[in-house]
Amino acid sequence: MSPALAELSGTDLGTHTASYDDRDCILYALAVGAKPTELDLVYERDLRVLPTYACAIGLWAVEAAGRLGAYDPTRSLHASQALTVHRPLPASGKLPMTGRIGAVYDKGKASMVEVVVESEWFSATYSIFLPGTGGWGGDRGPSSSGGDWPEPTRTSEFVTDTDLAALYRLTGDRHPIHIDPDVARANSFDRPILHGLCTVGIAARVAAEQTGAHPAELRSLNARLAAPVLPGDTLIVRSDDVDGVVYFDTVVGETAVLLSGTAEFGS
Questions:
Q1: Taking the model in full, what pTM does it have?
Q2: Could you tell me the sign of the dihedral formed by the alpha carbons of 13, 101, 83, 164, in that order?
Q3: Considering only Cβ atoms within 10 Å of each terminal Cβ, which end of the chain, N or C, has fewer?
Q4: What residues are labeled active site?
């Protein structure tokens, strides 16, 4: 497996065109906690698409990477997410994208695969953690330490529904770890866990709310997924902003589930 992993870097994952309509955008907004009163997120009349929906429609490339056969995709975990928004997503249509494996890192006891998706609307990087596959002598990659982080000054709670993982799957992320108890146990979880991208989408929306920005005005996002969230958990999103950058994290109880989050918003 190690030589195969080492050779993945730079692999072209091809092209893909995502087709969706306003119902998909509304479903996504509801899945990450948009309220029925936020009409421009849940009503087709003047619909604005949450930019983090781009991360959902770009997942085809992560699935394509898993099909290459170099690792077992059912034993993989989403470790971090980056997103840059080039232009607002349309409320319906067809979005052509390209995908590639940007890098593969040897983390010692694990490996990290970075999958990059690019389009004229957005660029996204998915960092996929592969437990038990490291030690093949590759580059360890950049450090995950984020340096000094401002102390959060705003705090909000978001209670996830116990059936949220089953709902969020309908946005396109069909990884069985979020629905199949056997796969969850094989990955050392007592039961299916919530999608990391669902947690990211909730945190980005709440952080926008905290700073007074509209969540559809997100222009860039980075966050590290530090621990799993179980459907039914209460997320505590904490943030502060400095020089136009929103710094945020998310905890469940005393456990950090999102770390080193940054976001920028602008009309």
A1: 0.94
A2: positive
A3: C
A4: 173, 178, 193, 196
The 10s digit of each residue's pLDDT in 96-149 is 999 999 999 999 999 999 999 999 999 999 999 999 999 988 889 887 655 678
Banded pLDDT at 175 (limits 50, 70, 90)? confident
> What are the tokens at 190?
């007592």
Beta strands in the chain (DSSP E): 12-20, 77-85, 93-106, 110-118, 122-131, 154-159, 218-225, 234-242, 245-252, 255-265
Share of the chain above pLDDT 70, in %: 97
- Residue 72 one-letter amino acid: D
Separation in Å, CA 9 to CA 13, 37, 112, 138:
11, 45, 11, 11
Distance CA 253, CA 230 (A): 12
**Residue of 166, 197, 199, 164 whose CA lies nearest to 180:** 166
Residue 54 token pair: 């781009």
